[in-house]
Amino acid sequence: MPKIVFVCREGSDEPRVAASPESVKRLTGLGLTVVVESGAGLASGVPDAAFEATGARIAGSGEVGSADIILRVNRPTATEMAAYRPGAVVFAVMDPYGNEAALADMAKAGLTTFAMELMPRITRAQSMDVLSSQANLAGYRAVIDASHEYGRAMPMMMTAAGTVPAAKVFVMGAGVAGLQAIATARRLGAVVSATDVRPAAKEQVASLGAKFIAVEDEEFKAAETAAGYAKPMSEAYQAKQAALVAEHIAKQDIVITTALIPGRPAPKLVSRAMLASMKPGSVAVDLAVERGGNIEGSEKGKVADVEGVAVIGYANVAGRIAASASALYARNLFAFIETMVDKGTKEFAVNPEDELVKATMLTHGGQVVHPNFATAAAAFVVDAPVAAPTATVAPVAAEPARVRKKPAAVNAETGGDAAAEEKL
Q: What positions does the domain Alanine dehydrogenase/pyridine nucleotide transhydrogenase NAD(H)-binding occupy (predicted)?
């Protein structure tokens, strides 16, 4: 009997949806039965009829209890989990760091859960990389939001009445979000500069037509490990780089910060003193506001006036371009699920020895099984229900998961590590 995939409608603060008409068609092509909760795609511009046209059935939230596979954007709440049947397999962005109690709740509910943001950045998993797909859009949207708040034109304009100078945009961090912010600001005609602690980022920044800002001494040239991560920098170097960045920010119209690292507070990159040095009417965008922020004085969900600078602290920036974000996320989910469906028998099965499963599986069989969270969550897990799994799942081996490495260090004065993961 075909497995039932249920696509949930998210809460009012999340406009994205975990499926698209395209992904529904492809999921049904794998032999799965797709049920979409009524209204799930409305905030992303996808009406129920569009899902029905590609093979989905529209139903109320009550039918989630019969689902074998549940697709979500965000981790389910305790109330939502109560409606899921033990043994269901849930795919979502789980935000596990610091939320061990929530992981324990999922384990106690008997769910097999996968955190899409833990997908390893390897060649095989490129099409499943949620962090990259959503950060790319967040970088684009950051520039659009900044241009909206900025009371002047972005490109240089030469008119009969005189010349309008181009806006100067400084991007701190040249990871996925940062590189897209650079590219977008350049397309709008701004003069763009960027900084990052990795020497390799200089070439990437230059390839997009931006100027690279860093103290390029011998220490900087040796500041990257063989794996592509940043090495710890000396206090002397950090002081020199901080002085250079502070001097540069004073000349900018727009500053965009992108440094986010899973499991750690966002590094502080821009101080009030730096903001005070900027011209009146300047704008700063903090893409790390949900983890404490890179910019002093930024406020989650608001545009704050800090030292005369409009500091944008919107949460869920990728969700501010929900239609595109949902389409990419749906492709990420399909690409992962496809690896679990046998092409011949059309059977859905989870292989715990697969490196992608090892890296992303959080809970299974009533336990938190991911080695990064199991110990902290163990205190919360008691009396988990025992249920027959909805998919064939072999016993989970007690060996370390192959997860992406964390950066060796983050230099909070220079814009963070481009290898650091961007949050959704």
A: 147-313
**Is residue 373 within 8 Å of 380, Cβ to Cβ?**
no
The answer to whether residue 229 scores a pLDDT higher than 90 is: no
- How many whole angstroms separate alpha carbon 152 and alpha carbon 11? 36
Tokens of 258: 């992108």
Q: How many residues does the chain have?
A: 424
User: Which token pair is 23?
Assistant: 């992904």
What's the pLDDT at 92?
98
Are 107 and 368 within 8 A, CB to CB? Answer: yes
Decide if pLDDT at 33 tops 50. Answer: yes
d(Cα 298, Cα 286) in Å, to the nearest integer? Answer: 7
Least confident of 14-18, 67-71, 176-180, 410-414: 410-414
pTM score above 0.85: yes
Q: Report d(CA 100, CA 93) in Å as an integer.
A: 14
Q: At what angle do helices 130-149 and 176-187 cross, to 10 degrees?
A: 40
Model confidence at 410: pLDDT above 50: no
416 has pLDDT over 80 = no
**Residues catalogued as catalytic:** 121, 126, 129, 132, 229
Q: What is d(CA 375, CA 372) in angstroms, rounded to the nearest whole number?
A: 8
Report d(CA 302, CA 314) in Å as an integer.
6
Residue type (1 letter), 187: R
What are the pLDDT digits (tens) for 74-118?
999 999 999 999 999 999 999 999 999 999 999 999 999 999 999
* Inter-residue contact 312 to 303 (CB < 8 Å): yes
CA distance 154 to 54: 41
Q: What domains, with CATH codes, occur in the chain?
A: 4-129+321-393 (3.40.50.720), 138-320 (3.40.50.720)
Rounded Cα distance between 420 and 392, Å, is 34
Measured between alpha carbons, how far is 407 from 391 in angstroms, rounded to an integer?
35
State how far the Cα of 242 lies from the Cα of 205, in Å rounded to an integer: 19
Q: CA nearest 418: which of 182, 186, 260, 250?
A: 260
